[in-house]
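Tokens for chain A. Residues wanted.
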């Protein structure tokens, strides 16, 4: 009997050891298969990626009353690489450099870094990480974490300020879902804003505890309906820019002939203070109507940024917008005055011979409180593409300020671009 028990015990031990050995062999083989599968995919992960290169030399002349004129010669270089998807994951790294050509004192950089007594040109010299993010996409949903180049809607509230040589990017996590046809849902949390002024200045970065909610539906007749809530909190670095904004818009276009169409946008938003901002509330309105026929286009718009009343600080505020795109290219109203701003503007454009788009814009500015005359502005721009990668642009802006408005100024730009 004892021999039987010993024999059965030995057989059981051998069976268990054999089973363990088999499982270990299976695990090793499975691991080897996964490693081989990964090796097989990595080349395509890299080969299928996208390299981007942007080189933009620019001359900017800026002259504002009370200051000497600036002549800024700069070149922007941005080099980045975005991987192809691998198991739903993508990543991107992009470096950005702004170099001054010639004497730095030819113009005043932000923060008084150069050109004392001259008009500021907001293109400081510097090198930094422009983008660096990791994204995962599956089930019509994308999660992105890291430094992002984010533009929402028409960039009136969230933009990348692509006109300046150093772009604005956000250190954020964003969640976007498009599982329902024509509907896009976006949520984002921002912990840092990398502003156009670069990392060397105290106001170059804003620490943030901000939330973004943006919903757009493209299935409406003749247009897109959007609603948004931007809860921006910059307590330490920019308390007066801490605002809660809730708004909605409807925009679109409609063909009226084979060669012609109309474009339109209507928008309203309500803004209140948050964080360490002083107590205030203000409204925003926009109505815009344009038309295109053959090589010609034109239109009219009216934008209202409400006043702050008796509180100190700016009126209706859009601190993360691409501000240069709005209220005139002379940048006289990068910050809304406490008395608010009404901007009535008209534009006319045409594609002239040699495929050169030409556009003229006129602005008339008044205050929201008291209807004071703040000035008027004349803008003109022409550009030309050469093949797929090259381009040139010339642009001029003249702001004629009145007694209650900002100082007179005029600016001229000539720039070339290479994009790959």
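Reply:
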């Amino acid at each position: 009997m004892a021999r039987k028990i010993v024999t059965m015990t030995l057989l059981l031990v051998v069976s268990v050891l054999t089973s363990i050995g088999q499982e270990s062999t299976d695990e090793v083989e499975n691991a080897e298969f996964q490693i081989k599968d990964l090796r097989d995919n990595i080349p395509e992960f890299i080969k299928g990626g996208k390299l981007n290169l942007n080189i933009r030399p620019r001359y900017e002349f800026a002259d504002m009353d009370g200051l000497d004129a600036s002549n800024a010669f700069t070149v922007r270089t941005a080099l980045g690489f975005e991987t192809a998807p691998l198991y739903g994951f993508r990543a991107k790294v992009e470096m950005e450099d702004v170099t001054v050509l010639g004497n730095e004192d030819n113009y005043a950089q932000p923060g008084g870094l150069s050109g004392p007594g001259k008009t500021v040109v907001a293109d400081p010299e510097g090198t930094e990480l422009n983008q660096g993010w990791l994204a995962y996409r599956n089930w019509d949903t994308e999660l992105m974490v890291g430094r992002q180049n984010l533009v929402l809607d028409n960039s009136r509230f969230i933009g990348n300020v692509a006109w300046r040589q150093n772009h604005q990017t956000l250190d954020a996590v964003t969640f976007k879902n498009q599982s329902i046809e024509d509907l896009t849902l976006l949520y984002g949390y921002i912990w840092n804003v990398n502003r156009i002024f670069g990392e060397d200045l105290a106001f170059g970065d804003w620490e943030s505890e901000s939330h973004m909610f943006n919903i757009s539906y493209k299935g409406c007749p003749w247009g897109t309906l959007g609603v948004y809530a931007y809860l921006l909190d910059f307590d330490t670095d920019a308390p007066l820019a801490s605002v809660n904004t809730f708004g909605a818009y409807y925009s679109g276009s409609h063909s009226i002939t084979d060669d012609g169409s109309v474009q339109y946008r209507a928008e309203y938003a309500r803004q209140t203070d948050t964080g360490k901002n002083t107590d205030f509330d203000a409204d925003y309105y926009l109505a815009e109507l344009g038309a295109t026929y053959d090589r010609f286009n034109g239109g009219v718009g009216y934008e209202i940024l409400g006043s702050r009343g008796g509180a100190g600080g700016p009126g209706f505020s859009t601190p993360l917008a691409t501000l240069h795109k709005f209220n005139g290219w002379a940048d006289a109203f990068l910050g809304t005055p406490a008395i608010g701003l009404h901007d009535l503007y008209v534009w006319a454009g045409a594609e002239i011979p040699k495929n050169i788009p030409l556009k003229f814009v006129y602005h008339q500015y008044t205050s929201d409180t008291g209807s004071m005359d703040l000035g008027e502005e004349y803008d003109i721009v022409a550009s030309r593409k050469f093949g797929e990668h090259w381009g040139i642009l010339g642009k001029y802006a003249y702001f004629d300020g009145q007694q209650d408005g900002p100082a007179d100024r005029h600016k001229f730009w000539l720039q070339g671009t290479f994009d790959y």
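Helices lie at 2-47. The radius of gyration is 28 Å.
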